[in-house]
Amino acid sequence: MTSIVNSRASFHSNSLVSISDANDSYKPVLGKQNYISCIKNGETMEFNAKKLRLDYCIIPRINDINGAGAHSSTYPDLLHLLSRNTQSSLSQVRQMHAQMLRTGLCDLPHYRTKLFSLYSNHHRFSDAKNLLRSILKPDLLSFTALINASSKFNDFKNTLILFSQMLTNGLYPDAHVLPSIIKACAGLLAVKIGEQVHGFSLASGLSLDPFVESSLIHFYVKCDKLIGAHKLFDKMVERDVVSWSALAAGYARKGDVINAKKVFSEVKIFGFEPNTVSWNGMIAGFNQSGCFLDAVLMFQQMHLHGFTSDGTSISSVLPAIGDLGYLNAGTQVHGYVIKIGFAVDKCIVSALIDMYGKCGCALEMSQVFEDIGQADVGACNAMIAGLARHGLVDKALTVFKELQGQGMELNVVSWTSVIACCSQHGKDIEALNIFREMQAAGVKPNSVTIPCLLPACGNIAALMHGKAAHCFSLKRGISGDVYVGSALIDMYANCGKIQAARCCFDRMPARNLVCWNTMLGAYAMHGKAKEAIEIFHCMQRSGQKPDSVSFTSLLSACSQSGLTEEGHSYFESMSKDHGIEARVEHYACIVTLLGRAGKLEEAYSMIKKMPFEPDACVWGALLSSCRLHHNMSLGEVAAGKLFELEPKNPGNYILLSNIYASKGKWKEVDKVRDIMRDMGLRKNPGCSWIEVKNKVHMLLAGDKSLPQMAQILDKLNRLSMEMKKAGYLPNTNYVLQDVEEQEKEHILCGHSEKLAVVFGILNTSQGSPLRITKNLRICGDCHAVIKFISRFERREIFVRDTNRYHHFKDGDCSCGDYW
DNA sequence: ATAGGGTTAG
């Protein structure tokens, strides 16, 4: 951020004043030239507004314009008239400028300042800047006019550049220009510059100005430093409606509804009346912090108090309405928007599209989008997100392509939306490709882009891509963000790099519940119960209360590792000590926990004792356990329930058939297969991904189109001969098709996870680990084969299936043969 | 002259 005040002139970094505890300990003193000092705890700190030369280019003076020649004394009046009349055209301003140059009025700061304001009001910053360059010794008034104007038009970068030029000219800000500079720092979240400016205001005594104080409060609120804002507020001698409103909005932004409302109502006690801007600040703050209902209620109350909502209130309340799904309210606001003619406001249109999208109204959403005709980036972005929400991925991509095609300004939200759209709808490789395109287009990913992209890397275990995204976040300084951090933990865990996941976790400067839960989930996925339990206790020691998600991960980790006793006691303590009522997913974990330990009857009675209807996950947990322990009678009960709950899930039929096969009940196996055939169910095609040399390869079961297929099968045959020598028998129970044994063996050979392992062995250097992801649960035969391969080929092999991670090493698997 | 309020991505 410091680069915004460019290196040519800036507050000297050595004199950076830390403000965090400065409010009462700084006292300004007179400093030597160009230095302003302040005293902190008896120590003098110097503040250096460093001077650097600015090369001036002086524009030629216009000597005459078409013989226009009013007497010079009439210009001040004319100028006054022009600046009062907002309708004055740009050409009138230019003529005035020319005449002023001719008559020398341009040299008088007071008149010149008017000219700056006139140009700025016409958004002609380049003209204003040329005017600035033409002045030999620009004065504070000229800079003030320009800085205030660029700040007013939210051109904050320009504001700070001008500020730096002002310092270069040896000019110090006064109370009239500081608020605009501070506003720019707030808008750009330029924390360090803002704090230095605060230091300057303290040192110079300008911090006592109510305008400066209010803008500083807003600055700290915007930069998420509410405590600093409050300290300032407390020290204020005279508070007004602006300072109260800024603080109230600050609490609203933090989601502190109680304090926000308290401060907001205190305004009245102290004799002030909240105005439209005060109300808008509350609505926007509540919307930003996710207090959607409070935002909507504020909007309603605003009207009850006799205020009329303007464009700002509407574009702040619409997203809140959308999140609540209040279609009725949304439609009313839409009607109001049309009635008062706000349907041309770009922000409002985007907000309307967003609202309809969130309320599930794809048609209305598209209607608003089409009605604009010339859609801007915001509207397109809202549309992409809305289409993605409705699963209309292709349409979303079309809108994005149109946006690109029209040469509209290619922004980070659009790219992020479309990346999110892909990674959320199983188009992981597309997400990675679009991310690459985005970089090629010169758009820099931010702290939202990375968490949208990382799941795509994790889904297909594209470790190199994930690492590249990690590097990006380090370079962009966003790796400390809780969303980025959690997404990194998840990505590394999904790619099998549990230590790297832990490393990211340990390095986080701050953690919220999601970070802890992600780490817990990562250990659970890897079946590392000991570590999960450690994190669980660590979390509580750090003051973070676990929620029901934390317990799901903890219980799942215990069940994966066979920690039956521990899991059971955590389950009991959940409601007893933590006041969290067990949900269906917790029961599923307990059923798995008991089932794995062979306590199938106990698991079944647990299901019967559940305070609500067991769902497919619970019965699925029982059925899996029955398969593990070859329990046919309970397996049939569980399968029967599952066939009712999800008749079209082929996985359940396959599990039951596995149980029959293990007992040699071939007739029953046939029966299950016939049911599947009659229902038109087919086993989902198996699919595995492996990253080799930075490219992700997808392998389908029985894929004959693979160029290396002959080699792969050859290698697989040779491995299988070695395995048979070592006593391995292919487990054809896993083949459901009604074919000869020989053919069954052949089908097993075609399983995608085996293909991926062998593909990896053929294409990577000896001894390097292999990371594979599968779209189904790993097949039992493949599990046995990969265990063997890990020993025979001396490779660590990581296979993530839909259930968990399998880490094969030296002939064993981390799951202990339970999955 | 100057301060407080807006959409779209997780």
Automatic annotation (TrEMBL):
InterPro entries for this protein: DYW_dom, E_motif, PPR_At4g14850-like_plant, PPR_rpt, TPR-like_helical_dom_sf
Coiled coil: none
Domain of life: Eukaryota
Ranges for the PPR repeats: 139-173, 240-274, 275-309, 376-410, 411-445, 512-546, 547-577
Keyword list, A-Z: Repeat
Family per record: Belongs to the PPR family. PCMP-H subfamily.
NCBIfam families documented for this protein: PPR
Protein name (Swiss-Prot/TrEMBL): DYW domain-containing protein
Source organism: Rehmannia glutinosa (Chinese foxglove)
